[in-house]
Amino acid sequence: MPDDEPLVRWDWIHDHLGYLGGLARDHAVLSLVPVLIGLLLALPLGLVGARFPRLYQPLAVVFNTLYAMPALALFMLLVPYTGLGSLGTVMIPLTFYALALLLPTVVEGIRSTPEPVRQAAVALGYGPWRRLAAVELPAAVPYLVAGLRVAAVSSISMAAVGALIGRGALGYLFINGFQLTYTTPILAGIVLIVTLALLVDLSLVAARRVLAPWAVREQGGVR
Fold first, then answer.
1. Does some domain include residue 46?
2. Do the Cβ atoms of 101 and 147 come closer than 8 Å?
3. Calpha distance 210→214 (Å, rounded)
4. Residue 98, in any domain of the structure
């Protein structure tokens, strides 16, 4: 970049608004769908883990090991099977990462229901499934939302790495910027990723206030 080149070319951003918006939409799908799938998998696995602690420990070890692996390494391992630049190559590892973060929160959430509350539900004639739906899952909502906040922000960040194997949405802006020694796309990518993460995080906070207002009151309404 020439010495007299401005740090941000606003005319470039204006001329590429449609392109940037498309990348942002692709990034949201690429990063948030794995979190949703991870949640759908974490709920039954977490329920089993809460009921049978001996099964939960091996599961936790497996997913914690997967979470410790670098994202790019997992992407490259999948390329021969799912193809370079395919959605699956990026979304499968992100799903495992989300599952590794959400599984403990589901287990802790289910276990958070006080035993006297469970006994009261049984005394009222609640069967196991009704007790789960009416008592245990609602009590687990604050834990689930906390896990979703971490998983969503983490996934939004890591999805950009997918650009290195041809499927990275906003991550393309970083590659193009570095290749051209042009800071405007890089800064635009950073701002859009941070904005997307903030919007998702605030949406989850709002959802928790609606679904679990008692948790907000217990914390003095701070969060």
1. yes
2. yes
3. 10
4. yes
Provide the pLDDT for residue 1. 52
Please indicate, yes or no, if residue 126 is contained in any of the structural domains: yes
Q: What is the mean pLDDT of residues 146-157?
A: 94
Q: Where does residue 181 fall: left (phi above 0), alpha (psi -120 to 50 degrees), or beta otherwise? A: left
Number of domains in the chain: 1
CA torsion, ordered 37, 42, 43, 49, to nearest 10 deg: 160
Q: Enter the tokens of residue 155.
A: 């996934």
Name the pLDDT band for 99 (thresholds 50, 70, 90): very high
23 band by pLDDT with thresholds 50, 70 and 90: very high
83: left (phi over 0), alpha (psi -120 to 50) or beta: left
In a domain, 167, yes or no: yes
Range of the domain at 167: 10-218
CATH of the domain at 121: 1.10.3720.10
Q: 49: which 2 tokens?
A: 């883990």
Question: Which position has the higher pLDDT, 221 or 29?
Answer: 29
Distance in angstroms between the alpha carbons of the first and the last residue of the chain: 43
Predicted TM-score (pTM) of this structure: 0.85
Cβ–Cβ under 8 Å, residues 89 and 164: no
**Rounded mean pLDDT, 168-191:** 90
